[in-house]
Amino acid sequence: MQPQWEVADVLRKVDLSNQNFTVHQEKTLRALTLCRTAALGGHVDACDACGNISISYNSCRNRHCPKCQGHKREEWIQAREQDLLPCSYYHLVFTLPDTLNGLAISHPQIMYRILFEATWATMSQFGKTEGLQLGMIAILHTWGQNLSLHPHLHCIVPGGGIDRNGNWKRKIKTDKYLFAVKALSKVFRAKYVALLRKEKLADTQLLQGLFEKNWVVYAKRPFGGPKQVIEYLGRYTHKVAISNHRIKNVTDHEVTINYKDYKDGSKTKQLTLKNEEFARRFSLHILPKRFVRIRHYGILSSSWKRGKLQQLQKELNVVRPIIEPKTQHKKCYCCKVGNLITLHVFGQRGPPKAYLIENKLAPVN
Fold it and tell me: Helix, strand, or coil here: 355?
């Protein structure tokens, strides 16, 4: 079911050029307002089965757009299914304290990079204690439910690794966490602060204060099986700060959104913001240009996937799923059976009038 309101509806009511956005933020927000509109052009398609003709506008394909992530998520999930190993998998979340929000706003590239580095250094250290080289997939999220800044990494870690002899060792803990959470928190804090000190972004008082706070590492029990891992991870990979379905009302001046209040039993509540404030909060989660927000480490890294992972799967009798070749055809919106064949591509001037008048068509998203 299509949502009544979209992020783009709110942004169109804000004078983006008069807000305190960076050039990159403003460019990104404008791209979202143009997504699937005549400004980006489009194409006329015909179904090879029922003959229905449809007009579609092009997507902006921006990674921050809530309308452009579906197919990317499915492709990513399909690729990750080939990396699965026969062991338990664990979900861990490493969170930065809110005292670092100011630095995260002013120096996001550095703060988020060392978040990845400190997290993997922590997991590697715990793995070495067990005599294992581990693997990890880490996904950066920067938002809380109310669009506040809340940088954290969602990490999926296989419950096994490679020992010193190069052999696979399965570390079975079906009803326990992978490692002690309190110990992970202390090591993570020490490694992050050490990296932050090297960057010379924070003064001594701030660095000392970071050791006085309890850093949060959250751990969930193992998944039901490797397949469930990928399905679960798919919820996190290509998420954006807020989905269109959470926007409940938009006026010329305000927007109302749904959010979960985790401090009050995860109850669903509503929050009303000025449109400018919504745009400001949304802009906090626009990542630096070319910043990689999904990273693979250890036995799940790209270097391992150049033969080593496949050999390990072969030794463990893991059957790799066959990836279906991509098709250039999309299914018909009308009959859901036939393939859409592009008849005409058009620019900002819109589709030829013949298609609009003769077929009495309205563009579809």
Answer: helix
